[in-house]
Amino acid sequence: MSAFDPSKLPQAGRLLALDVGDRRIGLAVSMPPGSLILPAGYIQRRNRRADVAAILDAASSRDVVAIIVGIPYDAQGRAGEQARKIQSLVRALERAADIPVLTVDESYTSQAAETELRQADPSAPPSRGDIDSGAAVAILRRFIAQAIPAT
């Protein structure tokens, strides 16, 4: 079996991105070849087992080929407490999933999503769920930008 090559993922099929927070997990999905990324709502967090089951259900129902999880590293690239909690969830997903579970630095994606949503409609403040899903879109954009080799 050949080595896993994440640069092939955007062309291979849909990707599901996760913005994992303490209360919600924002979702976004890419359509191959990765140029169209759509917000896909969020999962309300309950407990590890229920969260993993809900993520795998979201992945299965969307027919994705990989799950991309944002990890919030600090400015020096270190994993703080929140990053360690998410890495624990990633390990649980890796054990349960039959597709690759990959990570990408998600620093400042929530702030970028909130800014983008406020600019899109200044008259209505965005909901937390919309921000979480928007952050997942930003996570998936970042992953695809890093995974697709420059031509």
Q: Judging from the principal axes of the Cα atoms, what is the shape? A: globular
Q: Give, in order, the helices and strands.
A: HEEEHEHEHH
Give the distance, in angstroms, between the N- and C-terminal Cα atoms.
Answer: 27 Å
What helical percentage do the residues reach? 40-55%
Largest sheet: 5 strands, mixed
Radius of gyration, in angstroms, nearest whole number: 15 Å
Task: Assign the structural class, choosing from mainly alpha, mainly beta, alpha/beta, alpha+beta, or little secondary structure.
Answer: alpha/beta
Mean pLDDT: 83
Treating each run of at least 4 consecutive H or I residues as one helix, how many helices? 5
> What proportion of the residues form beta strands (DSSP E)?
15-25%
- Pick out the low-confidence regions: none
Give me the count of strands: 5
Strand order in space, largest sheet: 3-2-1-4-5
Fold topology:
Elements: H1 9-12, E1 14-20, E2 24-31, E3 36-44, H2 48-61, E4 64-71, H3 81-96, E5 101-105, H4 109-120, H5 128-147
Parallel strand pairs: 1-4, 4-5
Antiparallel strand pairs: 1-2, 2-3
Helix pairs in contact: 2-3, 4-5
Could you provide a short overview of the structure?
With 151 residues, the chain is α/β, with parallel strands linked by helices. It has helices at residues 9-12, 48-61, 81-96, 109-120, 128-147; strands at 14-20, 24-31, 36-44, 64-71, 101-105. The chain is 44% helix and 25% strand.
